[in-house]
Amino acid sequence: MATNFRLNDTAVTSTVDDDTPLLWVLRDELGLTGTKYGCGIAQCGACTVLVDGAPAPSCSLPVNAVAGQTVQTIEGLSENRNHPVQLAWAEVDVPQCGYCQSGQIMTAVALLADTPQPSDEDIDAAMSGVLCRCGTYPRIRAAIKRAAALSREG
Amino acid sequence: MTVTLNRRSFLAATGAALVIPFTVSGVAKATANPATLTAYLRIEPDGAVTIISPVSEMGQGTHTGHAAIIADELGVDIAHVRVTVAQQPGPAYRLRFGQMRSVGSFGIRAWIDPLRKSAAQARTVLTEAAAEQWGVDKAALTVENGAVVHAASGRRLPFERLIEDAAKRPLPEEPTLRAADTRRYVGKAVSRIDTAAKIDGSAEYGIDVKLPNMLHGAVRLSPVFGAEVDSIDPASAPGAVAVAQVPGGAVVVAESWWKAKQLADGLSIRWKPTPHDKMSSADLSKAMRAGLGVVSAPAAVSRGDAVARLNAADRVVEADYEVPFLTHVSMEPITCAAQVSDSRCDVWMSTQGHDVVLDALKKATGLAGESIYIHTTYLGGGFGRKTHGEVAEQAVIASRAVGGRPVKVVWSREDDVQQGQYRPVMTARMRASLGSNGRIAAMHARLSGPMMGKEYEHVTIRDNFDFFSHAVLGNQRYVAGDYRLDHHEVDVPPSTCPWRAVSSSQNGFFLEAFIDEVAQAAGQDPLAFRKAHLADHKSHMAVLEAVERRSGWGSPLPGPNWGRGVAIVESYGSRCAQVAEVEMVDGNPVVRRVFVAFDCGEAVNPGQVEAQMTGSVIDALGPALRCQITLKDGRSEQSNFDGYPILRIDEVPEIDVEIVNTGAPIGGVGEPGLPPTAPAVANAIFAATGKRRRKMPLETA
Ligand code: FES
Ligand code: FES
After folding, report:
1. What b/e string do you get for B471-500 counting C-beta neighbours within 10 Å, with b at 16 or more?
2. Where would I find the H helices in A80-134?
3. Quick one: which of B272, B384, B435, B538 could link to B441 by a disulfide (CB 3.0–4.6 Å)?
4. Distance B59 CA to ligand 2 centre (A)
5. Same domain, B396 and B294
6. Buried b (16+ CB within 10 A) or exposed e, B3-28
7. ipTM at complex level
8. Are residues B127 and B155 in the same domain?
């Protein structure tokens, strides 16, 4: 059965089995590969997207669960990498292999939307679902603080 | 793409691009007349600079380092330098073991001189071309921002106007390098050239490859290590485009990966029994520990007569240690896309093992190397695991099974965790005698466990010395005299594979945990004891003194359950000392702070050196504290991140890094930060509790 939802401000339709995880619909059916597979069991956060603004593991979300909703992926975050979180990520030079970073960035975007000036505890609570095998965590923390400062400065 | 090493055909093929090969000294002579050229510097007629690098980018920052080296020596802005990976492991690019492989922390240290030389050659012929055009002495010319400049007259000629002429000139054999003080990038914390692509989702990893008409493959492989297929019932995968048998299992091919995966999970498949169908980790541990007591074993290092001296000594310190299997869990799983015909094979792959993959593909296809093309994407982590070629073979078999259509095979995380290629299990018995001067007089290290080098036919194990098993212990600096390192071999069912820092990871733990025990027996401070033994080694002393100073070694800690531990490990040509501060909470260690001092000689990009040190400590802490692969019924008991819990952001200690440079030759960076962490933590646990934990992981010891 077809599933309709909004993806990065465009109406889309998925025609694969409607219990297919959103992750594979995004990657293989709709061709947006910025969202990554890491575990398939909601353990690593590499597949995090925003569903109506809230972070969700797309590997564990059947596509029919987002029918009628708005999904945002890394590709829809900005036109020119100029979202404050991306600017901060570039300034701090966060990525190593980079594979986890879409999940990190989308999760940080949701955190900052809710909590514009997060404490270390807020960062821990929001970000601990997203693994980074390369250990970029200290730079992720610094970049979130930098993004908060960028937004504060306007 | 393979370019023939004949200047005329270069010019014809490249439209007068300036193309200069990288050559490794020592190897270059043996291959003075190579048939093909695969890694090189290329300057297009429009001035664009491309490095066809022999090294993959898997997060370690090598491509940024290569770009910085070339940009400085050539005199261009780093923003104009692009880096791609050579498609074929040509003979001139095979290091040490006949490799084109991104391993051994060689990415910068092996290539800095060849890269600089090629850029200097390019700069020289560009400068000569300008000198001739202007009729001035080439010594009066400099380069700047992609142009040759004549300061006296204020004239400038951009490279693009000189390429055609420069490409006709003979390359100087020994070009003059630019003065170090002209460098804009090397030695500074330059931003990575791949950051932009890695923050907007556009960086292409192996798993992201899309090819016209492509199908998807999922694997179903034997849960018991090394079991062969008995039978497969293809009818149990209705709707599959193909079910292809591969070594140890099957690839199921379908229109989408999700569908292929579900069909693979439901596939009816049986495996033949193996001798280890019932084997558990306890069995392995017992077999290895028995080997510690075997009277003699082949010696990898033998100086003097350590065993006799130990047997005759009054004060002998002895301790046994054990480490488990570890897996790599690169964030990007194992994957390969392949398209194969009777005359040509292409693979798109996040690989760090080009020559291994090439060999696997030659075998799988029967094609000659010249007909095989390896297209390298970014790697979502490698850590040693992506040196292997089994997934390339699976993708080729799958492509054949569907008439040569491209197939992308992606392993699930469960496949990745359960299919072996582990950092080996190992046990060690360490013995040392103390002289009346309070120094170690003789030492014997006995390993008992698998010998990993045996899995690599192309690696020479020389006189029982196996680099894949004997690093660190092979060149320990504590005992110059009587010393013996020997190894009782115990075969294990899972395949083993380089894991970040390879044998330095376990041997660093054995040696540095033991040295702490010897210091204790000698009644000496563990850091002072190390310095007393390493006084003749400038770099060792520098990193030890740096962590001593930065950690406030000897100053009071916040509470009674706290402890500080130190370790120093030399690996991959670099020295790394670490001090860990640990608080015991409910009997388990919580690592609060780690101080790192590191000497790799010249730090090409200090920002990335710092990132590698921080990442290595975080990487090491998972296994130091709790990660391990255990066996039950001949298979792995773990399957995903829930059973193999690497560190999360809320558990990361404060990490302090100091880069020191004692003028030592340039060393590796990606791996040497890892080995000191686990022993520093183990030694800190002792300092906090007065009890030794000699078995990793330390949480469950
Ligand atoms: S892939 Fe979804 S949480 Fe890991
Ligand atoms: S940057 Fe490699 S997994 Fe996070």
Report:
1. bbbbebebbeebbbbbbbbbebbbbbbbbb
2. 84-92, 101-114, 120-127
3. B435
4. 7
5. no
6. bebeeeebbeebebbbbbbbbbeebe
7. 0.98
8. yes
**Apex CA B652: angle with CA B649 and CA B657, to 5°?**
125
N-to-C CA span, chain B? 53
Nearest ligand 2 atom to alpha carbon B59: 2
Candidates A21, A93, A135; nearest CB to B618: A135
For chain A, domains (ranges, CATH) are 3-76 (3.10.20.30), 84-153 (1.10.150.120)
Q: How many CA atoms lie within 13 A of B643 on its CB side?
A: 16
Q: How many residues does chain A have?
A: 154
CATH code, domain carrying B599: 3.30.365.10
Min Cα–Cα distance to chain A from B669, Å? 14
**Of A24, A27, A44, best ligand 1 pocket probe by most atoms within 8 Å of the beta carbon:** A44
Residue B326 touches chain A, beta carbons under 8 Å: no
Number of domains composing chain B: 3
Which residue of B188, B331, B377, B674 is the best one to mutate when testing the A interface, meaning the one whose CB has the most A CBs within 10 A?
B331
Ligand nearest to the CA of A46: 1
Which amino acid appears at position B353 of this protein?
G
pLDDT of amino acid B338: 98
Mutate to test the interface with A, among B200, B330, B410 (most CBs of A within 10 A): B200
Same domain for B318 and B433? yes
Taking the Cβ of residue B212 and every Cβ of chain A, the question of whether any pair is shorter than 8 Å is answered with no
* Residues contacting residue B400 through CB under 8 Å, at least 6 positions apart: B244, B340
Out of B192, B194, B331, mutate this one to test ligand 2's pocket (max ligand atoms within 8 Å of CB): namely B331
How far apart CA B116 and CA B74 sit, in angstroms, is: 8
CA distance B592 to chain A (A): 14
> Is position B166 within any domain?
yes
Instruction: Give chain A's radius of gyration (CA, Å).
Output: 15
> Within this chain, do residues B647 and B586 fall inside the same structural domain, yes or no?
yes
Residue type at position B672: P
CA distance A29 to chain B (A): 8
Same domain for B138 and B40:
yes
Size of interface A-B (CB pairs under 8 A): 171
Domain co-membership, B346 together with B485: no
Asked whether the predicted pLDDT for residue A101 surpasses 80, the reply is yes
Q: What is the DSSP letter of B571?
A: E
Q: Over the stretch A30-81, which tens digit does the pLDDT of each residue have?
A: 999 999 999 999 999 999 999 999 999 999 999 999 999 999 999 999 999 9
CA distance B671 to B674: 6
Measured CA to CA, the distance from residue B391 to residue B388 in angstroms comes to: 8
B266 and B289 belong to one structural domain: no
Range of the domain at B433: 281-325+422-689
Examine residue B698 and state whether it is found in any structural domain, yes or no.
no
Write the DSSP symbol of residue B95.
B
Answer yes or no: is B1 within a domain.
Answer: no
End position of a domain, from candidates B180, B199, B218: B199
Could you tell me if B534 and B548 are in contact, meaning their C-beta atoms sit under 8 angstroms apart?
no
Q: What is the reported pTM?
A: 0.95
Ligand nearest to the CA of B642: 1
Q: B500 to chain A: nearest residue by CA?
A: A134
**Which of B176, B199, B222 represents a domain boundary (last residue)?**
B199
B2 in any annotated domain: no
Domain shared by B195 and B217, yes or no: no
What is the mean pLDDT of each successive set of 10 residues along chain B, which is 701 residues long? 36 64 56 52 90 93 97 97 83 51 90 93 97 97 96 96 93 94 96 98 98 98 98 97 98 98 98 97 98 97 97 96 98 98 96 91 93 94 95 98 98 98 98 96 98 83 93 97 98 96 98 98 98 98 98 96 98 98 96 98 98 98 98 98 98 98 97 98 98 95 52
Give the residue carrying structure tokens 């990745």.
B416
How far, in Å, CA of B528 to CA of B548, rounded? 10
